[in-house]
Design brief:
Order of helices and strands: EHEHEEHEEHEHH
Largest sheet: 7 strands, mixed
Helix content: 25-40%
Structural class: alpha/beta
CATH architecture: Alpha-Beta Complex
Amino acid sequence: MAVRGDLARPPAPPLILASTSPQRHAILAQLGIPFDSAPPDYVEYGDDPLEHAAGKARSVDGGEQPVLGVDTVVVCGDAVLGKPSNASDAERMLELLAGRTHEVVSGLCLRTPAWEELGREVTRVSFRPLTPRDVAWYLALGEWEGRAGAYAIQGAGASLVERIEGDYLNVVGLPAALLVRLLGERFAGTYGFG
């Protein structure tokens, strides 16, 4: 089918993703958003995902291309859970989350040389009660490594979850609904949104 010249768009410039996360790569590919990635030159201090997302995005030079930084933490009661340092730390996190509802909080920063947008997304996740055997089984899989809150909902970690309220992809690693909204506002039509 031929496309009329006035309807054809030039290809969208790729976003520069300030991350090496395979989950974030997969989500952008799933959404059909062209991207390149660059490891951020940023050291995280504290536990504010919005601050970390901005720091990651600001640490990468995208030239004229938009740069995307994202960071995620899990909040359960007063505890902020990042990535576990070892299996014992992962076990502690899973035991804390068992039978409770927690929040997956992501910070997102989308920036160009002319502007910067910051946003936060919160998804509520409820774990089923877990037995010591459930926790030992999940720890043995090793899926907890490098995961905020010590689980991966897109893998076997889905078996730990009873209910989710909000953006599923936020729990996987990128607040997709927030990103799509910002792209639609800032780049109406360029990436297919807005």
